[in-house]
Amino acid sequence: MDQVPGSPKEPQDVRGDEGLPGCHRHPDRPTGIRCTRCDQPICPECMISASVGFQCPDCVRNGAGTGHAPQAAAPRTIAGGTIAADPRLITKILLGINAALFIAVLATGGEMSELVDRLALLGLDQYGYQPVGVAAGEWYRLLTAMFLHQQIPHFAFNMLSLWWLGPPLEAALGRLRFTALYLLAGLGGSALSYLLAAQGQPSLGASGAIFGLLGATAVLLRRLNYDMKPVLILLGINLAFTFLWPHIAWQAHVGGLVVGAAVAFGMVHAPRERRTLMHVATCAVAFLAVIAVVCVRTLQLVG
Hints:
The chain is mainly α. Helix content is 54%, strand content 1%. It is elongated and about 65 Å long.
């Protein structure tokens, strides 16, 4: 989503199949949001939070905002985050971490890699009797399992999804909020998998976090009054594969989806006056829910 410098002299008001006007800086992107100053349609990448509604970069740059210099100097995303020069930075870092660990796994034996034994999500031994892994106090596995992959198709599908879903969300939420969303969704997937799946075999992959991004995208599109059909169709297809394809940890997918959608809802619907407080509270509640689920399951296994 590279930003087009400047704006055309005569903004286009093209309309997509859903009848929404196109952003005046990105005419190919239908949007239901307009700048509160110039009334031109603006897409999520162009939205800058104002005291009332949203403004376009041109109005902010020209000092046509609310008249307060601090607001013009510090434009915000729809969720209140700082607008970054590179809206893909965190997505690139996450891709890099996943790629580095994937290469390390392949270099140390693939499916027989010792890294998988040490970092994958695990709660019981291979016979299903002895508590190990998370149940033995290795809680870090809830996080490290999110970045592990063993097979090329699994890795490729998750990374393509991350590259497709990540940048628009990162641009809309801001770097810090996007990072929190990704990690919490991944932890939510790990927690539900730990709770419901038979953890005699290692579980790993970024799928829980990816489903969290998918849920967050649906919430964001609904908030912006965008056409929901494409994302709902994509979500339906992915859920169908989740439950019909063998050897897929559906628990991780559902857990990530629920947590990602819930966190995104709290971020994009928080009242402007208490936005930061609501965001912190939303993330804290999600994190505490993960901790509670893990504690309950651990007590079941060691009790």
